Amino acid sequence: MARLLVVDDEKGIRDALRQLFEYEGHDVAVAEDGMEAIERVADAPPDVIFLDVKMPGMDGIDVLARLREKDPDALVIIISGHGTIDTAVEATRKGAYDFLEKPLDTARLLVTLRRALELRGLTESIAQLRSKVESRYEIVGDSYQIRQVLERVEKVSPTEARVLITGENGTGKELVARAIHRLSSRRERPFVEVNCAAIPSELIESALFGHVKGSFTGAVADQVGKFEQADGGMLFLDEVGDMSLEAQAKVLRALEQGTVNRVGGSEPIHVDVRVISATNKDLQEQIKEGGFREDLFYRLNVVPIRVPPLRERREDISMLIEHFSGVIASQEGMTPRRFDQGAVARLLELSWPGNVRELRNTIERLFILSAGEVVRSEDVNSLVSVEGSNIVAGAELLGGETFAAFKRSSERGYILQHLHENKWNVAETARRIEMPRSNLYKKIEKYGLVREE
């Protein structure tokens, strides 16, 4: 059911359109002049507005302009008993979705409404998709360290400056790169990512610059490289410190000349690309050791951004837990879980060598395997293996090489957790997990579960 607003100074037309649209199952409001229409839109924005042109006081074209100022996405269908080409052109220029002449044809009215609602649905779907994508790549935190990162991102994004992002694995370097793209003038153009560490050294040049058919064994067709794919947009060179010296030389030439040559090709190809790079290595140390070109380092490191490890911004952990809880519940279609103070306090104690990525994976594990709607400290203790003060990433649970091994580990952890919660009262545990007591005793024996002193 859609929300519609009919604006016309003729009561007969208002009543007729209301009756027609309500018969089709829509919620219909009416207004007899422009000012009333603006007030109604402010109170409850409709999905589609049918707006008459000739009305006392403010005419429909002026109302249209006012409505579009307040909501550029407003879908307004102009209706007029004095339709002219000039009026239709003016209405379109002011942002009207369509223009209908009186007397109104019922079939055309309903077809126009259906198309408008289809557009509205598509627009909302795109907005929802963007929201989901942006929540996935959102930088979360309110610590001084993360605010420093965000301030630098805001300053550098509108420029064309190259950025070198440094930080440990799992800190969120890709999130920073995507934030720069999202805030830049190139945001509607491609964002192309290359993980330089994941591509064999003998293939990195082909991946970056493309190749022509027959240039090497296996080159059965021409291939466009990442630089060409990112033309007009942004190229993110992740783990740039793992790039071979030969590939580094070609990247340097591409940055200096604005052209690339496909492997085996002779014609230079012009590319307009903004390069953002990232590394978890000390490139200046690599320069001393001869593993990275100094001239390329200075080309890439125009604006440096260091992403701090999670242990340096512990005050953000609570916010990150809440954020990941919402994202995981939405993405996986799971029931939202709340983390009580004990669970949060326990997670705050850990050192997180895998940084934000490790925290996210841990929250997902707790979501899946914890019992009840609230995650408690007992869940953290039983499902997150700890060695000293460091998380081992649930090695006991997830270390099995086969699915059968994983199921055994999961079942063992589940039973052990509930035995802990019920102070090893087997009868109460069996009742709560809805398992016959005899079966529970067999499981305890099978897994060799022993109550700790």
Can you walk through the features of this model?
Residues 129-135 and 386-397 have low confidence and may be disordered. Helix 6 packs parallel to helix 7, helix 14 (341-349) crosses helix 16 (377-383) and helix 16 packs antiparallel against helix 18. This protein is an alpha/beta fold. 49% of the residues lie in helices and 14% in strands. The protein has 20 helices and 18 strands. The protein has a five-stranded parallel β-sheet, with helices on both faces. The protein has a five-stranded parallel β-sheet with strand order 7-10-13-6-14. It has four domains: 3-133, Response regulator (Rossmann fold); 144-308, 3-Layer(aba) Sandwich (Rossmann fold); 311-390, Helicase, Ruva Protein, domain 3, CATH 1.10.8; 400-453, Arc Repressor Mutant, subunit A, CATH 1.10.10.
In short:
This protein is of the alpha/beta class and 453 residues long. The chain has helices at 11-23, 34-43, 60-70, 85-93, 106-136, 144-156, 173-183, 204-209, 226-229, 245-257, 283-288, 294-300, 317-332, 341-349, 355-369, 377-383, 395-398, 403-421, 426-432, 437-446, and strands at residues 3-7, 27-31, 48-52, 76-80, 98-101, 163-166, 191-195, 210-211, 223-224, 234-238, 259-260, 269-270, 274-279, 303-306, 338-339, 374-375, 386-387, 390-391. It folds into four domains: 3-133, Rossmann fold (3-Layer(aba) Sandwich); 144-308, Rossmann fold, CATH 3.40.50.300; 311-390, Orthogonal Bundle (Helicase, Ruva Protein, domain 3), CATH 1.10.8.60; 400-453, Arc Repressor Mutant, subunit A (Orthogonal Bundle).
